[in-house]
Amino acid sequence: MTSTFLPLRLVVALAASALAASGLGAQTLRVAAWGSYDGVTNSPDWSAAGTQLTLSAARGDAAWVAGERLGRFGETDLIGRIGGVLHPGPRWWITLEAGTAAPPAFMPKNSWEADVTSLVTRRASLGLAYRRWNYPVGAVDIVTPHVTIQTAKLSWDLRVPVSRNASERTDAAFSLRATTTQTSRVSVWVLAAAGRESFVVGTAPTAQVRSLETITGAAGLRYDAGSGVMLKIDGNVVRSRPVLSRRGVAVGIEKHL
How is the chain split into domains, by residue range? Predict the structure, then answer.
């Protein structure tokens, strides 16, 4: 990565100092790594590989730093992200994250995200997220109300992103995800999504923010391998019009230290 990103040791040290200074007690470190590959119709295939370090406190607060290499449209972007979760009360969570790519070919040159979520009943939460992607060809603003409901066997997560892009067009979509625990070690999830999404097509200097009509189906599996290790595998199929229909697979691993 370039000098745009904060040194990894410095970020982890700052996160640890902030959590320790807040009097949150013992912290735990989680290391995650992932990779994915998508076959794209009438376009070079996509790929991704990344890693993230997360420092968590017993109360629920956390801080993280991540780096990722993305390949799309025959080009490569390196991105970095830093963020955190604040848990100021038993019913509230506040998430903040910032990211950058230098120099960006197809990703935002910088991005910002904030999410506020509240537990409204013992089994339901409501939240509102705001994200801004500052692409070289123009900004995209996304507001996403979301609700999560836990039933006896399933956890349901509904999200409705509404985006406003540089062409002053407003797009809206939805996604519904259901997660269930199969055994003490295995959980699975399925997702369905549809709508119009603001998406950058191509690379600088000819890239454009376009509104794509998408229908998505996805599923994944989580396996607790023991000793603090979690294995992940996901698959997705996206029908996108007029461009960028794709299907892909992603794998990941997490380790608690």
Answer: 8-256
Domain 8-256 is found in CATH 1.10.10.60: no
What pLDDT shows up at residue 227? 94
Q: Say whether pTM exceeds 0.85.
A: yes
In angstroms, what CA-CA distances link 178 with 12, 106, 153, 240? Answer: 33, 31, 10, 23
Q: Mind listing the pLDDT tens digit for each residue in 31-56?
A: 999 999 999 999 999 999 999 999 99
Q: Residue 56, class by beta-carbon neighbours within 10 Å (0-12 exposed, 13-18 middle, 19+ buried)?
A: buried
